[in-house]
Every structure is written in structure tokens, then in C-alpha cells.
Amino acid sequence: MEKGVTIVVCTYNGAHLLPDTIRHIAQQRVRSTIPWEVIVVDNASTDNTSEVVQREWGKYNSDTAFSLLYQPTQGLTYARELALARARYEYVLFCDDDNWLNQDYVSIVFDLMIQHPRIGVLGGHGELVYEKLPPDWASAFTMFGNGPQETSSGKVKRNIVYGAGCVLRKSAFLKILDAGYKPLLTGRVGQNLSSGEDYELCYAIALANYDIWYDARLRFKHYMPKERIEWKYYERFFTEGIQCVEVLIPYSIILNYGVKSSSQFYLKLFRLFLSNIKQLYLLLLNKFKHPINSTEAKINTLMLKKVSARLWTFRKHRVMKNNFVKILSLNQNKMRDYAEKEANLIPYEYLN
User: Fold this and answer.
1) Which residues of the chain, if any, have pLDDT below 50?
2) Which of 73, 100, 126, 175 can pair with 146 through a Cys bridge, CB separation 3.0 to 4.6 Å?
3) How far is CA 9 from the centre of its chain?
4) d(CA 170, CA 3)
5) What per-residue string of b and e applies to 308-324 under the rule 16 or more CB within 10 Å gives b?
């Protein structure tokens, strides 16, 4: 597969966000020796997203290859699968429609992925930019693809990075598909706030013995419109977004705790349940320590909603067990063989 960078922007009704996102992509400073392209996927938008994309890209008279695709099936996973099928280059950069990439992003991505052939997924450092000043309680949460993802650049301990601004090695993705991987999460559909598909992909790539990596030099701004810092949005995020844990917990138990048997799975699941019960108890105690409507009280209330929603998902322990079995059924030996071979196939010209 040709070494180069494909920037992918998947969007649903993103007409109001895309002008700034496209401008930052068009203004990338990329060495002439680095092949790159841009793909935008309109994921069944009902606004004028496609027209805005074409108009905005046309402003910059760029000679970079550009494609606008349409995915009629809603869901971020489906939009990304279409983009991956069309991507010409090995390193696929997922830029959300509200991400503003620093001008050196593509160049740093290319160099890192060449230098470290075991990187399967590479994450960057997002900085939130608000349309209006957020309330203090909102600033306390880092849940929107922002902030450092590890104490220093390199392999991350938890085997996950957030999807905003992340880079996927396409050959690694194709190889886990060949080994039987099928995503269990579809990502956000329309205005629904379900999530977790980025973490699932990271976990699957990690199962194949690729590294999940973070580099602090990969900087981008993550724009936050005013409606995303409202109380009701946070409530929805913690209730709708938590649904993904029935998939992510089994992955985490396998990868981060080395569990391979059903009995060990239930034991670890029970311990996680008890840990959440303890957290809920502490939050309930804190509820009476802070004045009503104070910043601390609001943060505590949202944390209560988050932990309560997570505890509610444990009732689906049978679904989690079935997902655990599905994940274990992947041909992990085959995936690891692929990773080992790729790590030993670095073209000589890229090392000099």
C-alpha cells in the first residue's frame, strides 16, 4: 500500500462547522515528498453539507486530491468504512468536522507512522475552543476529545486514544478484518450521542499486537458550539454515551487484565461492579457536602448520572459475556503474525 496520508472528514449536518475545518486542512504545510489526499463523507445529511464542502474547498485552489462521498446509511462506523475503502494511502487521519488541525499535522503524522511501523492507531492533543465561555462545571470534564492522552509521547497504557484527530494504519485495519473483526458499535447515528466506536477500533488493533500511540506534537483545536456546553447536553451525553460499555468492558477485560476464561471474566466484571458501587456511594455522600447550585454540586450531580448510567449497564452482563466470547473468537494469532511481518518491512528509503 502506498505510503501517504488520507485525511477523512465524516460529517452529519455539519454545514455550519465545515468552513473552518476545511480551511485548516487546505492550509496544511506538507512537504512535496509526502503524498496526501482529502476525503469528506456526507453521512446522510439533511442540510446543505455537500454544497458547503464543495464551495469551501474550491476557495483554496489546492492541487491536493479531493473527494466528496455520500454514505446514505447513518452511523460514523459506516461513514468511515466507506472512506477506508476509497482511501488511497496507508495512513488515514480521522479529522472530525469540528477539528482544526495545526499546519504541521500531516507532516508529523507521516514521519511518525514511517518511523514506528508498529503503530496501529496514533492520537494527538486536542484543545477545546468555545463559542462562548463555558460554566465552571462544564470545564471540569474532559470528554470531548481534548487534553493529553498520556503523561508523555509514546505507547499508551490503556490501549485507547480518542477518535478526534487520530490516525489509523489502513493495512492493520484490513488485516483485522481478514482475521474476522466486525465492529459491534456503529457510532453516532444522527443526533444520538452514542459513542465508543473509536475505542473499539483501538482495542481491536491492539489485539493484533499493534501499538496504540500518542504524540503531544500533534495539536489541533476542537471547536465547541454553545449548545454542547448546556446542562441538558451533558445529561444526554452521560446517559446515551454510556451504552457502549457493554462492548468496551469485555475488550478492556481481555486486553488490560489478560482475562481469557468465562469464570475469570465474571469475577473481573463483579469487581468492576463493586468498584462502581463504591464510587456511587462516595458521590452520594458528597451530595450533602456542597451548597445547592454550586459548581461542586453540579459536577457531583453529573458524576452521579454518569456512574448510575454505567451501573445500569451491568444488568446486560449476558450481552457482555457474549461480546467477550465474540472478541476471543477473533483469530488473534493470525492478526499478530501480520503485525510482526509489517514491523520488519520498513522500506530502506524511509530510514535515511
Assistant:
1) 347-352
2) 126
3) 13
4) 10
5) bbbeebbeebeebeebb
pLDDT in tens, 256-266: 999 999 999 99
Amino acid at 200: E
- Nearest residue to 67 (alpha-carbon basis) of 42, 47, 48: 42
- Pick from 332, 327, 156: which is nearest to 250 by CA? 327
Q: What is the DSSP letter of 213?
A: E
CATH T-level topology, domain 5-240+334-351: Spore Coat Polysaccharide Biosynthesis Protein SpsA; Chain A (3.90.550)
Q: Cell numbers at residue 57, please?
A: 474547498
| Residue-wise pLDDT tens digits, 234-262 | 888 888 878 789 999 999 999 999 999 99
Query: Which residue type is seen at 239?
Result: T
CA nearest neighbour of 11 among 63, 69, 86 = 69
End-to-end CA distance of the chain: 20
For 28, half-sphere exposure in the C-beta direction (CA atoms, 13 angstrom radius) is: 31
